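Anyone else keep sequences and structure tokens together like this?

Example one:
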Amino acid sequence: MGLAPSALARVDASRQLIERILEKEVAVYGVNTGFGKLSDVRIPGNHLSELQVNLLRSHACGLGRPLPEAAVRAMLLLRANVLAKGFSGVRREVIEMLMSLLNRGIHPVVPEKGSVGASVYAPE
């Protein structure tokens, strides 16, 4: 499984747009601002990597039973598919990594209840 050339072009164009926006120092929610109530707080360019790591950390908790492997793999595939549409501004390497994980049969343990916007998986 791999990305179609048309998807790569959309992803690259979207990422280039984000890069141009950052060069102009325009505030973009979640890219160079805080989140939620901190959306009006501008993050300096030299702290953007830290912002992204902290975003992942803030969403990296959950509880409950692990979801079934098929459900987690489906979530990875859906995320790769939506990112490949080229509307998110991610680097192509993010999508390629998700696809590599799928192709190698590697997936995270995902608890049934997450910290932000998650729902319980109900196979019935």
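And example two:
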Amino acid sequence: MVAHQARATLRVGHVFLKVDGDQTNTDVEVEAMTLAPVPTPEILWREPPVLALAALPGVALGRLGQPSTASAAAWTAAGAMLRVLHDAPLPSWSGASLDAKASSLDSECAWLLANDVLPADLVIRNREIAEAALRPWTPVFMHGDLQVSHVFVDGDEVTGVLDWSEAGRGSAMYDLSSLTLGHPERLDDVVDGYGAEAVDLDVVRAWWSLRSLTAIRWLVEHGFDPAAPGCEIDVLRAQL
């Protein structure tokens, strides 16, 4: 299903086998799925370096770079699910700190400019937009990698959420941004489910810029294409 230098995921019938050489990632994933008050895959067994998970019913809410065929109600349900997670008791471990995010943003923007990966004005303007994401936040139980393809739905209902290895205490707006990255037309639906009073739209959009700027080098080095239609580089262009 997925394979890169960090880990691989294989499907065998109705079982997903996640192979990760760093077992601290799997430790976090298992603990987060145990604590999260939202639907997650059933853990079938664990024999390091392999974690076996049952397949979720339904289909992914969407894919980055492709239009989502899911209903507005399904996106709203995803927002409501995320609010339940964020209102849950905090896990005992932390996610990436503000200082770490700021340092990553600085180093990745410097790399993009030094290697002429993107036009300088595109990097600089998105770097300015991303500043809003670095405002202090009140920590929540954060999924940490809530890509739209990690949320499964059946009709208008969320059936489960995948890939918890980056969960921890972190920013609520980061999760909202990850879920809607490349799908800005769905943001209103997600906010309807999450609760508009708890959403700072400027910060969500700032995370779109920050996440895209800091992901490009990793994606290139791991065999993915951030320049594919609708993906990270198009997200940066749309921010302007």
